[in-house]
Each structure stands twice: as C-alpha cells, then as structure tokens.
Design a protein that fits this description.
The chain has 179 residues and is of the alpha/beta class. It has one domain: 3-Layer(aba) Sandwich (Rossmann fold), CATH 3.40.50.10420. The protein is built from five helices and ten strands. It has a six-stranded mixed sheet. It has a two-stranded antiparallel ribbon with strand order 4-5. A two-stranded antiparallel ribbon has the order 7-8.
C-alpha cells in the first residue's frame, strides 16, 4: 500500500481489486488459517455466547467457526439486516435469504446484549490499532455501539490489514484483528 492515506472509498476499491488477485482456493486457505487462530484464541475458548456473521463469498468464510461453536455447545448469534440496523438472532436451522443474499436466522430478536461474550466482526480493511472499514452503511458501527463490554475480533484476509484506516468519530474499533 502507498504511504499516502487513502480515503474510505479509495481503500474499499483497493481491497476489492486485491481480492480479485487471489483464487477462491487461495482465499479458502486464508480463511482456514484465520479460523484456526480464532479457535485457539482465549476469548473464543472462554465464550459461551458468540456473535458471528454468515460470510459473503468475498469475506473470510465463517461457516467453520459457526459449526465449531455449535459443536462446542456455544450459542451463536447472527445479525439480520432490518432497515438500517442489524438485529441479532440466535442461530437456528430455520434460515432464510435476507438482505444482500445473506442467509439469516428466523425467530425473535435477541436483546440481552450483556450476555454476549465475544463478537467476530467482518471488515473491508483493518489496521493494527483496530480501526475498521466496513462496506459503508454503518451497520456494524451502530451495532458495536450497543456492545461496549464485548471483546471484538475483526477477521480479515492478510492483505486487508493495512497501515492506516481512515476513522471518523462514529467509527467503532475492534479489540483485536486476526488475519
């Protein structure tokens, strides 16, 4: 990456271009390595209620994490897009296609935010300070404002960890980045 700090839109474009330089097989290998690190992380091992996300094809694949959490007896929350907000719902076998083509759990909204132990968060880019660049709609910034007590792990492909992510006052950083 260049020494010049990119704008958010420039950085999103740069990341999209970088993703196209890797094969699906290479991205899958990156995803497996990220999953391995998450599964060994102390916060993961201690958590009983984990907020994950159902990954899009161009994101770190979270399906192994979801399955591993369920097999370990952890409860899994997944976000559901409702208007301009992310609503949390417990993972279930009752899934439907929601906004942006993402599979989302059906059921009632989960509102006991104090019970959440760990949040695994996607991003277009992260920096070493935990600044996160999302896709531009602010869904996760608004959600993470409601979870100040929760350890947040941003997960990304190695090339998504950049020198500096432009951050505004409303942008919420993650506790740690794994790539």
């Amino acid at each position: 990456m260049t020494a010049r700090v990119m704008t958010k839109n420039e950085l999103r474009k740069w990341v999209r271009e970088r993703k196209r330089q890797f094969s699906r097989e290479e991205l899958n290998r990156f995803s497996l390595e990220v999953s391995r690190q998450v599964l060994a992380h102390e916060s993961w091992l201690q958590a009983s209620l984990v907020l994950l996300y159902n990954s899009l094809p161009d994101e770190v694949d979270t399906h192994l994490l979801i399955q591993s959490a369920l097999e370990a007896g952890k409860q899994v929350l997944l976000p559901v897009v409702v208007g301009d907000e992310l609503e949390l719902r417990l993972y279930s076998s009752q899934m439907r296609q929601g906004a942006f083509g993402i599979l989302e759990p059906e059921g009632d909204a989960f509102l006991d935010f104090a019970a959440i132990d760990l949040a695994i968060v996607p991003g277009m880019a992260f920096d070493a300070s935990g600044h996160r660049l999302g896709r531009g709609r602010g869904y996760y910034d608004r959600l993470l404002q409601r979870l100040p007590h929760v350890t947040t792990l941003g997960i990304c492909f190695p090339f998504q960890l950049v020198d500096a992510v432009p951050a505004a006052l409303h942008d919420i950083s993650v506790s740690e980045v794994i790539c």
